[in-house]
Design goal:
Elements: E1 2-5, H1 6-11, H2 13-21, E2 26-30, E3 33-38, H3 51-56, H4 68-71
Parallel strand pairs: 1-2
Antiparallel strand pairs: 2-3
């Protein structure tokens, strides 16, 4: 982490932002007092994957337990009418 006075930030904004982009945490000071910290944006975890990416993962592990829904019969028609 480095300290950057407001004046340097104003005069060299692009340079300070580039330092943050490269992973450095930059603390901005005003009259020697820290007032803000500029940090790099971390890549967020994606909320979804494309169909192609999913299919590229391949089949699940063969030793995986089946989901309970997969064990149920397809229908309950054989129960007859409810009395």
């Amino acid at each position: 982490m480095s300290l950057v006075p407001v004046r340097e930030l104003r005069n060299h904004t692009a340079d300070v932002i580039e330092r943050a982009r490269n992973g450095e945490e930059v603390t901005i000071t005003s009259n020697g007092v820290p007032v803000a910290t500029l940090v790099p944006v971390r890549a967020k975890k994606r909320a979804f994957i494309t169909k192609e990416e999913f299919l590229a993962l391949g089949p699940g592990k063969p030793d995986m337990e089946p989901h309970p829904h997969d064990l149920w019969d397809d229908t309950t028609d054989d129960l007859g009418p409810i009395q």
